Amino acid sequence: MFSKKKEGHMEYERSEPVAPSSPDVRRRKTSVIGPTLKFKGELSANEDLIIEGEIEGTIAHQDKNLTVGKEGRVKANIDARTIEVYGIVEGDIHGEDIVKLAKSADVKGNIRCARIVMEDGARFCGNRYEPESEGGTQAGKPLGG
Amino acid sequence: MTAPDPVTDDPPREADALHNAAGSRRPLPSIIGITVVMKGELIVGEDLVIEGTFDGTITGEGTDTVTVRRTARLRGNVSAAVVRVEDGTNLESTTLSGRIRLAT
What's the CA gap between B49 and B73, in Å, rounded? Predict the structure, then answer.
């Protein structure tokens, strides 16, 4: 999904999904929070989610991919399998698999994940933890400050 | 060329949505999918399609349409310029306000 095109320049290249062919496959499995949408409360989902609007509260996302788009502003703790951030997040991020911060990302909060990808220019203020360190023990040197 | 019908037409392709998230400035309609559960207050200034569960208040600003599919489970208030409701939708605990249209 991500590829390194050349030295010092990370370019996001999406290899999936491709345009579906059959009517069944064409059924969307992604929810979209559009750029003019503002939500305050509790949100949970079991499908891929793209956030381009504003969300404040809690996000419990079960084993799926979550994208905070360039226009997205999230003030909540985020829990998902794969998390991509292009916008602003205030809160702790827990990615079961990987957390990706694009160069436009601005994250204030702790990140717990097995793998992390940060593009040059991404803003991150917080600590990064390995999944094994749930007891509060910090693994490795903090990436932000 | 007729305008797309948010109730009967196919929803946007996933690839389109992902493309927008990656940087395009084309506005996206908001889609609350079938597995999504939301509880709280929502304000939207674009078309909104609800397939999942929502408990609370939905306020549509402007002239946009809120579409409630029959898979939706709503509880609370929905206010928008146009509210489209699919035939068979359970609105037992829901108050709708605006121009209500029934979609078959």
Answer: 12
B7 torsion bin: left (phi>0), alpha (psi -120 to 50), beta (else): alpha
Optimal mutation site among B10, B42, B67, interface A, most CBs of chain A within 10 A = B42
Domain ranges within chain B, ordered by starting residue: 28-103
Do the Cβ atoms of A17 and B43 come within 8 Å? no
Report yes or no: B75 and B57 within 8 Å, Cβ to Cβ: no
Cα–Cα distance between B29 and B11 in angstroms, integer?
10
pTM: 0.75
Interface touch A37/B33, C-beta < 8 Å: no
Indicate whether this complex's ipTM tops 0.95.
no
Is 60 exceeded by the pLDDT of residue A82? yes
